[in-house]
Structure to design on (436 residues):
């Protein structure tokens, strides 16, 4: 999945957090779900990261359409970025972030009623005004009109990320808003999942109006688990549970770390489905995917430190698809992918906070302490930076910010896992494919 303008496929104090406001009686949170002691400094850091990230998803959106920009300048002081490219994946992360923001009162100048109104406007626009193909959405659109950007594909995985956000919002706000409940359900139920198979045994990565389906398929383990589970859990246009067995799960070995991963995939591929689906303490016939992502995170840190000791150390590591001085790139490892040059990408560790809280917190806290502004702005970390080259991105990218916010909250309280898994469809899908 690509995430840029380039067209490609109240403080809780860090203790227990009660999820309240909005969703009638949403599930309550608890302490860190992995049982890790959380010192005050870590709690304060997580709260800042989450609260400032939530602000992005409120400010960098169209109030009329609810669409959220793909990227925005981190130093505009709250003004809407003049660029107009929205990303449906950014919007999916944003709808989820609004649940967090409302629960904790993280938007003090915004009322609960205003947040509900924004969510309703978002769902209404996506249900009635956004161009769709068999229920699937175009990856990039004009934030104000919904008109697809030139060259943008109808995206299977980005539609899935949007749907995860929509189902999270349904679980949180739906009990008090019949409109949110109804519209969210309609958007999910109209997706014709078999259409995106295009006659094959795995999902196409997308469709273009001029040339039809993309030849690339989600046929090898990556962030695809959400796509398959949403399709299998559909009550209107499902695919058979047997399709879960159709994507490859290759095992790679890096310096003693063995885990399922696609070849040279960025670390985000081990994070995205876990932002919503709760894979903790569960296994299917192939793996415990939560444990797999823990190993992938540890392997990625070891890869940075052992392969590039001239740049990376325990206080400075992490690369995943992001900006760099030369533009936007897909990079990471192991094995090495892309033009690795010493740039650090905070969401590589941010998106893995729930997998390795100690190591990921250490590096993120060190990055903030060592580089501060200009590495950290209104919405938290910029997308990437390279201090030795005196290069600091000025942008945040919605999905990179979003994965950090959601996984930080999952570490802190488990809120998004509890919220999303209160929906019957994902629970049923996981049972159908054999999770136990």
């Amino acid at each position: 999945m690509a995430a840029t303008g380039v067209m490609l496929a109240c403080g809780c104090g860090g203790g227990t957090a009660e999820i309240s406001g909005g969703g009638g009686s949403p599930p309550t949170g608890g302490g860190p779900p992995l049982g890790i002691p959380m010192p005050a400094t870590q709690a304060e850091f997580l709260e800042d990261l989450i609260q400032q990230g939530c602000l992005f998803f409120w400010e960098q959106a169209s109030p009329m359409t609810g669409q959220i920009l793909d990227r925005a300048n981190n130093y505009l002081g709250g003004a809407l970025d003049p660029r107009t490219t929205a990303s449906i994946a950014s919007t999916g992360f944003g709808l989820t972030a609004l649940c967090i923001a409302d629960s904790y009162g993280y938007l003090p100048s915004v009322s609960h009623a205003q947040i509900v109104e924004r969510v309703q406007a978002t769902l209404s626009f996506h249900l009635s005004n956004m161009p769709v193909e068999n229920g699937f959405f175009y990856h990039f659109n004009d934030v104000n009109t919904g008109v697809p950007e030139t060259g943008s594909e109808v995206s299977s995985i980005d539609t899935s990320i949007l749907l995860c956000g929509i189902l999270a919002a349904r679980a949180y706000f739906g009990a008090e808003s019949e409109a949110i409940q109804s519209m969210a359900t309609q958007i999910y139920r109209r997706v014709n999942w078999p259409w995106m198979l295009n006659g094959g045994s795995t999902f196409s990565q997308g469709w273009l109006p001029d040339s039809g389906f993309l030849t690339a398929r989600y046929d090898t383990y990556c962030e695809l688990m959400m796509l398959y589970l949403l399709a299998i859990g559909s009550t209107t246009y499902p695919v058979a549970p047997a399709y879960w067995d159709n994507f490859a799960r290759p095992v790679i070995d890096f310096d003693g770390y063995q885990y399922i991963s696609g070849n040279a995939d960025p670390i985000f591929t081990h994070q995205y489905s876990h932002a919503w689906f709760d894979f903790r303490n569960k296994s299917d016939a192939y793996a415990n995917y939560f444990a797999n992502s823990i190993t992938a995170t540890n392997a990625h840190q070891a890869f940075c430190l052992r392969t590039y000791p001239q740049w990376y150390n325990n206080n400075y590591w992490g690369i995943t698809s992001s900006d760099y001085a030369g533009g936007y790139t897909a990079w990471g490892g192991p094995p090495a992918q892309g033009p690795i040059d010493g740039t650090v990408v905070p969401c590589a560790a941010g998106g893995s906070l729930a997998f390795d809280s100690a190591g990921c917190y250490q590096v993120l806290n060190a990055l903030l302490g060592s580089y501060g502004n200009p590495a950290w702005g209104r919405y938290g970390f910029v997308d990437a930076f390279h201090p030795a080259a005196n290069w600091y991105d000025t942008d945040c990218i919605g999905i990179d910010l979003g994965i950090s916010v959601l996984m930080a909250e999952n570490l802190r309280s488990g809120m998004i896992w509890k919220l999303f898994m209160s929906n019957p469809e994902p629970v049923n899908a996981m049972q159908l494919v054999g999770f136990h």
User: Anything to note?
Assistant: Residues 51 and 128 are 31 Å apart (CA to CA). The longest helix spans residues 40-59. The mean pLDDT is 92. The chain has one domain: 40-432.
